[in-house]
Amino acid sequence: MLSRLSRNTLILLFSNGITTGLAFLLTILIGRGLGDAGLGRYAAIMAWILPLTILADFGISTLITRDVAEDRSRTENYIRQAVRWRWLLGGGLVLGIWISAPWMASDPKIVVGLRIASFLVLIDAIFGVYTAVWRAWEIMWPILVLNTGLLSLQVGGAALAVWQDWGLNGVLAAVVLADLVQLGATWLLWRWRFRPHLQGGTPAPARFLKLAFPFAFGGLLATLYARMIFLILETHTSAEVVGWFAAASRFIEAAKMPALALFGAIFPMMSALLFEPAQLRNLLKKVTAGLVLYGLIGAIVLNLLSGFLLGFAFGSAFENAVPMLMLLGWSLIPSLLRQNLAVFHYALHREQQVNRIVLAVLPVQLIAGTLLIEKWGGRGAAWTLLCTENLLMVFLWLSYRTMRDENWHSDTGILRE
């Protein structure tokens, strides 16, 4: 079990490392080629596109990973039904963005960019169906190959757009085209190498969505939580401040990359240990200890090298992002621990409890973020995330303690809600 976990984690770590590096390079290209205002507009656009992509997914990817891991004969029917819903939900959202873009942003350049980037909602949602199956099968190398190819195309296309002076719209068009090429390659790889012939049962369409809904709602809440700060920044500050905060956030995303690989590999394994509480507790303790150590080291490194890292990557125009990065560095520890506890709850069919906790913290983030950003700008945004990450971690830990005391009264199994 541990050897399989290590192998899959390493593959996902390598995948995340390459893709994070390429995504970081894409941010640098946009920041240096289009300036801090251009990067701020790009971040504002993605702050809308990413949660809408989660909405188009509707939690179906997580449902596929859990259910197909239990019975691979469900694969083909689950894919067929999931793709149908992707076209319905994702296509509707693309149309909705085109119609409502002028009400989603006041900046005309962001409005046009939203319409161009809207196609990512549908494309990425369909791609997520196949990656969910590969995760359920614990076959990770296609994810590595396809994500690496995608980001390489995105970086190459963005570099060409910047070089040809096509502006932000050209960069976004290159990103969309790269995603479309990736989806085509994914479909061909699936048909050629992986398509199974066994077909098991599939829930009725209404039941399928009902099972997926808690994951959909949770994904939307998590994305809204992660992106709300950018929306508040856009409202109360300038595009330059949003760009500084986006630059600092890129280093935090890069620092989280190894842990995200671990979470991707450990989710199906935790699900398999549902009725082995002793092993599950032991696994959770080991992962938690490792995350605390990793988060502490990462926070110290980012605080010591924040000025050098931002200057080297983005140039002197982003020196105002240094205090933001220093504060965000200390959010690594609670952020990694709350994500670990969320994965644990999901594996034990307690996704609705996670949703309730995130939903309770969102108003705190909105109110605190508005007040702190109005007073301190980007530093206020960093303080907001640091506080809310700790709040989420504490609530999830208290939920775990309650569940342990009530449900883990013996080693014969775990009682579900």
What are the segments in which pLDDT stays under 50 over at least 5 consecutive residues? 409-413
How far is it from the N-terminal to the C-terminal residue, by CA?
Answer: 27 Å
Strand content: under 5%
Oligomer type: single chain
- What is the tally of beta strands? 0
Number of helices: 14
Overall SS class? mainly alpha
The total domain count is: 1
Q: In this structure, how is the largest beta sheet organized? A: none
State the shape: globular
Question: Overall pLDDT, averaged?
Answer: 81
Write down the secondary-structure element order: HHHHHHHHHHHHHH
Question: Measured on Cα atoms, how large is the radius of gyration?
Answer: 21 Å
Q: Tell me roughly what share of residues is in helical segments.
A: over 70%
